[in-house]
Amino acid sequence: MTMFFMLSGFSLFVNWGGISLSEPNQITRFWKKRFFGIVPMYWISSLIYVVLMIAIRKDTIKDEILLFPIEILGLQSCFASLFGFSHNGGTWFISCILICYITYPFLQELIKTIKKRTKIVMLMICSALLLYSPIVVHIYKLQRIYSNPFFRLLEFAIGMILASMKTDYKDSKIMGYLYKWPAIIIASSVMVVGISLVVKLKIAISNYMVYSWICLPCFIVMLLGLSGIEFIALRNSKILKWLADVSFVFFLAQLYSNTVSKMIIGRYSIDSNLCKIMIGWISCIVFALVLRMIEKGINRKMESLIRYDSRKKSDK
Fold this sequence. Notes:
Blueprint: H1 2-16, H2 24-56, H3 61-72, H4 88-113, H5 116-140, H6 149-168, H7 173-178, H8 181-200, H9 212-227, H10 238-267, H11 273-315
Helix pairs in contact: 1-6, 1-9, 2-4, 2-10, 2-11, 4-6, 5-6, 8-9, 10-11
């Protein structure tokens, strides 16, 4: 998830960094695009989940009614203790990314105006906060910060800063070393070996943000490195485009696939780990395809409404 938020900030800055988001029209355009790309499917998926849960457990009605204003506004990640309620265990990241999108225009214009040294200082401060905070959580046995929007916003900002620095230092020798496969392979290997060793030693098993000590520097190298390598064979790949299109509904499908998989595994007393993995993947893919069909229907409806609105304005 750390890489997810870093990549989100990085890719947005690459695509929008050349556009002035200090202009109201451009900010509105940015927010509208983000809203229609996420919120409608989030609402529909959440509604389906709530209806199913109420049908299975009648005692959840009170909780769903009380939490409705929080859920519809996507503010659930601001309440750490809500992670285990309703669909929040599967939609908290949407809440965090919405907060990131709201603040993005202001962060972009800020990053564009500051000097190179200041960007490095900002990068170091954001990284230091990310690395220091889980230690405090571990020592004082505090509530996990895994779904905390502030720390996810820091990761998002790091991605934006890296995208900006990529342009600032495009001719530097360091970037030349990063834009090669050995750097990416080494960073990936360090991450896999390091995390495997930490887990084997049973260090901070439930406090995943501690692993940022290993993952964050590796992710920085991997993100910058991969952004400088061109994949000609994948440039116009229809498969890659399709996978990108279904990535959001694939996340949302886990709302249902995890519950269904547990029911199947429990019903038939399945012990094989391979079978459990296959059941999980198959159920997730099936639900993702169903949600994708719903999403395409919503997109067609949105496009027709936009065209209708455009025609009305042109008539006037």
